[in-house]
Amino acid sequence: MSRPFASVRARATLAATLVVAVALVAAGTAVLLSLRSNLLGEAGTQAERSAREVATGLAFAKPYDDLPLDVDDRPVQVVDEEGRLVAASEDLERISGTGVDAVKPQPAATARDGGDDDDDDAAADDDHGESLEPGEIGARTTVSDGSATIDGDTEDYRFAAVPVETEDRGRLTVYAGAPLSAEHGAVNTALTVMLIGFPVLLAVVAWVTWLVTRRALRPVEGIRREMAAITASEDLARRVPVPDTHDEVARLASTTNETLTALESSVERQRRFVADASHELRSPIASLRTQLEVAAAHPELLDLDGAVEDTVRLQRLAADLLLLARLDAGERPADARVDLAALAREAAEGRRGVRVRAEEDVTVAGSRGQLERVLANLLDNAQRHARSAVEVSVRRDEGPHGADGGGQTAVVAVADDGEGVPAADRERIFERFVRLDAARSRDDGGAGLGLAIARDVALRHGGTLTVRDTPAGGALFELRLPGA
User: Which of 177, 242, 344, 451 is 20 to 30 Å apart from 313, CA to CA?
Assistant: First the structure.
């Protein structure tokens, strides 16, 4: 089952939007937490300041009525060590979070039993964790959150508890609150801004990403359309447009054009090969058919030798075409050890005017049949152009193959005393169906595949086949192969 189509543009837009959304949520959460923490800390500082102001008055033995209990309409409680409310803000109606729910002061004993002083002080020390002298305010502040109702208005507060030791009233604890309305308002405002702004920002990011990816992928779409047109028209001469961006898309377009060039060249070679092969096959087949038709009508005129010769030519040409087809298909040669000296002697055996000079034990790895075919083609070509003599030499040489592979290079040289090969044609003769002598008959010159096959076989074996002039002026074909 095929998956639904999703364009790169859509996926890129979705991915960018998701990444920005995650980043915005993380950043927004961090901002809200930081803002809330700072505002809570500020409220705690304000509450502690108010509590210490009241505690200072208690330390100086001020009466409860003279204490700043109603400053800025903030809730304040003064609690004795027995937990009784002894002073509070005038309009305080309800309170929670301080541990004392009373809002109206209760009368406290003015004198304490002296025998209980030590016990009460010890209890107070245990409660607040620090020992205080009369008139001393505690250094430690306890912070808690709660709510209070003052003059009918209920709000959340942060309370600070500050202990103070008095001379006449014992240990007292002052609870003072600072409103959290600013914290709540700031956090809610920031949250509202984020809830409204984040979707708008994400929409902008998605829109910009959509436009940017459309612009970035426009050359890719142009390449796709052109490739589709090339496929439909089968016109390999066309090329895809290359953008002037010098980026990955431009390199993709350049590589695509290089691939099209190589494909066009390959198809053109195949077309020429088929056309030339058809032309070369037509001559021996037509000649053989003519001879057979004449023989059928006039048996006494049968040219049996000519028919056999045409059949042999046809067989050789078919074998050459099949070998080239296998080489073009990428057939790998066998990995057998081949003695080139012995192979050269066998190839030269029975050939008139061919002399062999070979070092012993010059071996390579490859296909014996294909290498034998190379030597046979080189000797056929040399005998066809030699005046009187052909010389074959086999030797070991320290060449490029030995330097790279750690071994030696095997060299087979076939030289003739003919007219040589013009410098301008030294690469052209290795092309298929090429015959330099246009006046030479096909019977004498062959189909022009021998040297092409020899070059292809050499390349498949990791070697080279080149031609140059001999000192005497003839042609010298040199086959170099990596030693086994």
Answer: 344
pLDDT digits 0-9 by tens, 230-280: 889 888 888 888 888 888 888 999 999 999 998 888 888 778 777 777 777
Kindly report which listed range (106-120, 185-199, 420-434) carries the lowest average pLDDT score.
106-120
In a 3-state reduction of DSSP, which class is residue 183? helix
**Residue 305 above 90 pLDDT?**
no
CA distance 52 to 122: 23
Residue 129 has pLDDT above 50, yes or no: yes
Whole-angstrom Cα Rg for the chain: 53
CA–CA gap between residue 105 and residue 89 (Å, rounded)? 9
Angle at which helix 368-385 crosses helix 340-348, to 10 degrees, equals: 50
Give the mean pLDDT of 292-321.
79
pLDDT reported for residue 107: 67
Tokens of 145: 């959150």
Return the half-sphere exposure (C-beta side, CA atoms, 13 A cut-off) of residue 12.
14
**Dist. CA 407–CA 133, nearest whole Å:** 100
Q: Can you state the angle between helices 450-460 and 368-385, rounded to 10 degrees? A: 140
Q: Are strands 363-366 and 153-165 parallel, antiparallel or unpaired?
A: unpaired
Task: Read off the pTM.
Answer: 0.52
- Are 143 and 51 in contact by the 8 Å Cβ rule? The answer is no
Q: Is 110 exposed, middle or buried (0-12, 13-18, 19+ CB in 10 A)?
A: exposed
Give the Cα separation of 5 and 12 in Å (integer): 14
C-alpha span between 70 and 74 (Å, rounded): 6
Model confidence at 442: pLDDT above 70 = no
- For domain 333-482, the CATH class is alpha beta
Contact call for residues 414 and 401 (beta carbons, < 8 A): no
Sketch the domain layout of the chain as residue ranges.
1-234, 248-316, 333-482
SS3 category, 144: strand
User: Is 123's pLDDT higher than 50?
Assistant: no
CA–CA gap between residue 141 and residue 45 (Å, rounded): 10
Q: For domain 248-316, give the CATH number.
A: 1.10.287
The amino acid occupying position 336 is A
Residue carrying the six token digits 């490859």: 366
Between the CA of residue 116 and those of 32, 84, 276, 372, 461, what are the distances in Å? 51, 18, 127, 124, 112
Q: CB-based contacts of 24: which residues, under 8 Å, 6+ apart?
A: 194, 198, 201, 202
